[in-house]
């Protein structure tokens, strides 16, 4: 896939929708399933074959087939977003899909194949180290919550206490009592995320025996203090 051939959208667009298609699993192959999806990466489109009728074609801001690695997806879709966060803008990467489609693989990855989240951690700290100055101080903190059975739980507290979402007219929605852990490296952020993962609610499903049955949000807050101006961003 040629990077230059991939369709681009305006850099200031609020939302981008990207699809990543995984290959058939061994279980699916053993049960005799055939490939039903074709990815047209240069067009940002996905074609779904329908043996009983007309095929369906869906178009996205970008589409990746099973040959695309996470590094490519990060560089093209996530790196600009993280760079914007480091410039003072809010940003979110939201992974959505059916159980077993590969959300955890894309977002967290494995020891051999890093996901988007640990790559973002290293990106943040590389930026901090490259911009180190006696006049600038950085503070990076992490929080981790999950929504499970209509409850919001704090994954970084000892008892996974229940939290309340509140709203303000100016600042929007926030969770006032969630635990915030200050981290001093990308490795500490990974350890914080893994500690929270051990507290997530898991349940057996037909698709994935160890699939989590909750929605989780890992929140990273980056603050920059300028000593000469006393300005905090």
From TrEMBL:
Keywords attached to this entry: ATP-binding, Cytoplasm, Cytoskeleton, Motor protein, Nucleotide-binding
GO cellular component, one term: microtubule cytoskeleton
Kinesin motor domain residues: 14-233
Main location: cytoplasm
GO molecular function, one term: microtubule motor activity
PROSITE patterns recorded: KINESIN_MOTOR_2 (PS50067)
SUPFAM superfamilies from the UniProt entry: P-loop containing nucleoside triphosphate hydrolases (SSF52540)
Superkingdom field: Eukaryota
Biological processes, Gene Ontology terms: microtubule-based movement
Family of this protein: Belongs to the TRAFAC class myosin-kinesin ATPase superfamily. Kinesin family.
Protein name: Kinesin motor domain-containing protein
